[in-house]
Amino acid sequence: MFKWKRLLTALVAVTLVGSLAACGGGNNNAAEPTGAKSEGNAATGSGNEPVKLRIMWWGSQERHEATLAALDLYTKNNPNITFEPEYSGMDGYLDKLSTQAAAKNAPDIVQLDPGWAPDWANRKQLAPLDAVDVSKIDPKLLAGGQLDGTQYAVPLGSVAFGMIYDKAALDKLGVKNPENGWTWDDFFALAKELKGKLPDGQYFTKDYAANYFMYSAYQYSKGKGMVITEDGKFNIDETSFLEWTKHFEELRKEGLVPPADVNSSDKEFDPQMDLMVAGKILFRYSFSNNYSAWDSIKKGAYALVTMPRAEEAGGWLKPSMYLSVSDNSEHKAEAEAFINWFVNDPEVAQILKTSRGLPVNKDNATALESSMSDVDKVGMGLLRATEIDGQTWTAGAGGWTNYIDKDFPLVHDQLSFNKITPEEAYKQLKEAAAAYE
């Protein structure tokens, strides 16, 4: 079981397979009476009164453009509803949103990482989404957005956690590309193979010494379970953690990961600051939906591969992100109606494609898969390869967001700058966990 407390990218950050080809149409223009719902629309509850909805999300430029186009379509179909969009990259997103929520000024509609949803629901910062039609969504994807049987957050897509690499650079170096199902032994052996072949200023991968997500994948693959248990207990396996951090200590000494200042300068998907886009690293973790964003920057340069494994798989499938309605919203019915449309309408699925992962509405996903482009197939390939025996994702225990977003990065930076030993890093993480248990 996997406990996820950030993105993507994340997503993660950002765009499953890329831009799936257009498919299926649908128009659900008519507002329905309050309390009614259908496959395509929830109740608008707005009549003809003008309503402006604030909506906030993070992502890549591709996601921004697709979302803005979807908002325009909704206003065209519902002229009384307009939007005030707020969008950015992932950096600083949660801090900004949390500040707004604390001041009772959060946007009406908010995009949440799956790992945040339990905390937000427990703090009663989200409104119930009873009128959203979830009949065509896998219950496993819905579970993380529920509290006591009530849906407070609706998933938007499903994605696979794996790695992206610079295929063009590896081919130029005459190095064999990794294949799905490769192991951590293969991963670290490839790093050693590249020693002496890499030009100055180019490195094997980022320094992931105490990166929460990458270490979680390693511990999972060792059969040691979640870093934090579902009932909220510290569960870092000391032997696995020391193996992992000492591997990166060695890579650091051999110049196969970037110096600490370069490593910390990385900004995913930024054309100037993304270390892979800049040609400074060959490998980094990725979600399947990220591929098209990178491919749009350097056509044909990159490829995806499963997260390395050991006794078990290292990668997993998860909901990409959620949409929720803020409890402080004065337009809850209108916001809920929009979410229902955003998730279920086939016409908006044609616009959004896979900018937030493979659509959770099964009909929309099937229609998109049937008309995939070559770019789409790359991301879908990672998703299908991961779902064979990938780890099972869970939102896990609430209350650990700061541990993952702040305590782990602090320890990581100290390791990267050679300020502490792996043994000291483990001790710090164990001691910090006591405040959350």
TrEMBL record:
Signal peptide residue numbers: 1-21
Origin superkingdom: Bacteria
Q: Which InterPro entries does the protein's record reference?
A: Bact_solute-bd_prot1, SBP
Does the keyword Signal feature in the UniProt annotation?
Answer: yes
Sorted alphabetically, the keyword list is: Signal
By its UniProt entry, which PANTHER family does this protein fall under? ABC TRANSPORTER SUBSTRATE-BINDING PROTEIN YESO-RELATED, ARABINOSE-BINDING PROTEIN-RELATED
Put simply, this protein is called: Extracellular solute-binding protein
